[in-house]
Amino acid sequence: MTKLAQDSRFIDAATRYARRHMGLTGTNPSVATLLVQGSEAGHQIVGRGITALGGRPHAERIALDEAGEAARSSTAYVTLEPCAHHGVTPPCAQALIDAGVARVVTAYVDPDSRVDGQGHAMLRVAGIEVIEGVGSEHAARDLAGYLSRKSSFRPHVHLKLALSADNQLGRPGQEVPITGEESRAQVHLMRAQSDAILVGAGTLRSDDPSLTCRLPGLETRSPLRIILAGNTPLPLESRVFATARDVPTLVVPGAGVASETRRHLSAMGVELLGAEPVNGRAPWPELLEDLGARGLSTLFVEGGATVAASALASGLVDRISLFQADMELGEGGISSPMTVDRLDADHGWTHISAHRYGNDICHTFERRNET
Asked: Has 175 been annotated as catalytic?
């Protein structure tokens, strides 16, 4: 196996390992570090670390503590450039230097202005070989929320819709299960890996969802719930509001939402965010800016046709997942504002994957970066 192939193998392993704490590391990204000793006889992981819950300690420190003296002369595989600044803890780049690591292979440069290449520079000055950009595409996909918040000062926006075979979202005023159990489990995993989930008031009225993660063992990973209300009447008896003291809930009301409704929501433990519509449109830029300022990195939009169309019109959606079922709803259904065929033909989007879950296929698209 070539050195490049081996580096790719271990970076891929580190990238998969980092997913364990996605959505659980506060304002820090979930980063993984593997320390590997190798010879002609083979290679062995002597230390591994993942950003701790809440964001501290960092992955490098945890891996070094596990490896002890075995870290000397090892190769460190890190999914994001080691930090170079003094914060709550000393720089991770310095910790790797002090431990006597021989090589450092990273997937992505940290865009934080306090790092941004400085961690790599510290390592090189200390005589450590540094290889950048190995497995960067996959790592960047998992780090998309952190990268978006650091570069664009807003969370990464992931829009999900469930479509019938004839591209319908459901029937007006009815809750119609479209996708199967396997797809629904995958959506709950997406919730668990997100900082916040958003729907519109219409979804609250028609479906009365809980908007929580209910996968066994991941129940505590429910994200912040956001209701984009506009001027639509809110069903105050909904499950989301009834559980607002257990799972944080935020409402973005329009100017037409009555003062009495606002007081009622506040009394139930719901937070109100003052982002007013602009020219009759949902306040996506202001909302995302506010969420980014709170340290939220990922927003999972799970609303219906109205919210999806509004989000798309804002031009701020970064990723789209369309779960396409094999059943047809026929006439009278709610047409989807987007379909797999339309996105395939839209030069602004790139089809990155298609995965089968039971009888459904999830097509995922990412916004194409302009060069």
From this structure: no
